[in-house]
Amino acid sequence: MExxxxxxxxxxxxxxxxIAKFKHxxxxxxxxxxxxxxxxxxxxxxxxxxxxxEDIMIGEHKKRMMFVVSFRRQExxxxxxxxxxxxxxxxxxxxxxxxxxxxxLLIPDKYILRRWRKDMSRCHSNLKVNYCSWCATEDDKRxxxxxxxxxxxxxxxTTDDVFCNYVIGRxxxxxxxxxxxxxxxxxxxxxxKIIDCEASTS
Length: 202
What we know:
This is Protein FAR1-RELATED SEQUENCE. This protein is of the alpha+beta class. 50% of the residues lie in helices and 18% in strands. The protein folds into two domains: 8-116, no CATH class; 138-199, no CATH class. It is built from six helices and four strands; from the N terminus they run ααββββαααα. Strands 1-2-3-4 form a four-stranded antiparallel sheet.
């Protein structure tokens, strides 16, 4: 598939994403450059918040919705209130709009999930393939299990704003707790390695 723009991060996405995921990325980029507008920005410490207005067509009617993107430039950390990345593992149109505003040339590796990469190796093979539906890594299996459960949640939550906001709030809390758990685990592993090293040299 050919690139639609001259942005470097689209060329990057073309190289790394599977065809299906690259098409999804292009759709987000096109929507970001066409239907999204940065209305306001606020500086707060190291974080800048952007208010993004998007024109959305619902049937034959146009609706304007607002989203908030938080951007930490130094680490290139970004989060959008639409939570597309948290739900589907792909940066949204609102984030891409902010990247363009801030001259971010390439997508940070942490936002390119391994399961969407076309060079991902699968099934004890040294060949690089686009996708292999009959074989999956442990990461893929865990992703499928969580996706199945989360689909049941979204089927209920998408019917009402109150339900939707409740789920998003719980996800934010869960994300914070998981980050703390991962950090704690990394510290424990690092400490264990130091102890093992000291024991072997004594």
